[in-house]
Amino acid sequence: MTGESVVGRMRADLATGLRRFLHGFRELTTSSPSRFAVLVFSSLILLFTGLFSLPAAAADGQVTPLADALFTAVSTICVTGLATVDMATHWSPLGHVFVYLGVNVGAMGVLTLASILGLVISKRLGLRAKLIAAGDSNPMRAHGGPVNEGQTVRLGEVGQLLSTVALSTLVIEAVLAVLLYPSLLLGGVHPLTAAWEAPYYAAMSFTNTGFTPNAGGLEPFAQDYMMLTVLMTGVFLGSIGFPVIFALWRHHWHVRRWTLHAKLTLITTMILFFVGAGVFLLLEYDNPKTFGSMDAWDTTFQAFFLSAMTRSGGFSVVDIGDMHGSSLIVGSMLMFVGGGSASTAGGIKVTTLAVLALAVWSEAKGRPSVQAFRRRIPSDVQRVALSVVAWGSTIVAISTIAIAQITKAPVIDVLFDVISGFGTVGLSTGLTAELPDLGVYIMAATMFMGRVGTVTLAAAVAATSRSQHYSLPVERPIVG
Known about the structure:
Layout: H1 3-31, H2 33-53, H3 66-77, H4 87-90, H5 93-107, H6 110-122, H7 127-136, H8 158-186, H9 191-206, H10 225-240, H11 242-251, H12 260-284, H13 296-313, H14 325-337, H15 350-365, E1 370-372, E2 375-377, H16 379-407, H17 411-422, H18 437-452, H19 454-461
Antiparallel strand pairs: 1-2
């Protein structure tokens, strides 16, 4: 056999192997996008763990311990904002670049990222990919069966939705950076430094992460209401979710054309925002370590700011560890709910809370079905909402018990930080930074499960969805 024939055969084998790999890759992306998304997220976390372990990523030029590098990678990719090191001083400029890139990649979301990678391979979204992408935008997809068109994105809109995700991220962060730049200059930041910190703050607000590039955090800007308002706006836009942004972009102020999902997300978000601010104002107005030393205007504004940040923002002006225990419980409740579905926020999502509240109200009224805005919510969605709350509560309970046993810290502090991790919020009583390595790994796992989402995680673990062609006899157990 001549040398040319050997080379030709090697090339043919390589081409065959490449085609098989691409075929298998495409099958994975189209047959189970949820499982593929978990795989992609895990791979990204491993990649960024390696990047954060580089000596050049640390300010002191030393290798960052594995537990801290892994935790930072999970917190960055999962856009959480919790940290076991001082994020402003520990990392070098290269390390801050890694953080900035990581939060923007994580903000794209699990399913969106999987769809985009699948699109790279297939060059375009075919009918099958569109069906799966549309189906996975609906939690009912995890339970099999037909997908209600009113509960998902139409096939022709899937490609537009993916474009909206990328474009809205770039445009919103750019606008936020432009608005933040003057405030940084007025705060005494050097113009060149502000040119970096402005897009950094913009990314951290829109992605609901909450990292700050300067050692003092937001403390130097505690009285800059313009900057704090811009940060709240970025957190709000990031937390309502890309499907809501897509609906608002298409229909603007035509409220009747908004989807039920958009209406429930916006209404529930605003209710929690105002109620949370009112409760924080009531509980903390006499606390000299938080709001007690402020005047009436500062107290009111900071109450709204804290309410917005507990939804998943992660920024804080007051020391969370100085808050009353009652306020920590309220903050934990808000963080557990989180933001909108398919958003940069975590938690069980506001639509889950809205569906359960509507179900309770319908039951109290004796209605045969759950209705909202002249639309009927199927029982499948109600079961998914209950499952999400059950799984979320289980994850929080197990993590809280484990970390409380390891650290022997006050349970309220442990619960607050665990829910902050699960809801990918980033607020902390100070406990997370003091966790031993085992506690760090448990908290990292909690953040990962909170970001990936309970429904997506369940769909990824489930091998197949089985249909049952018969029904069993009915018998009603006593409940309540």
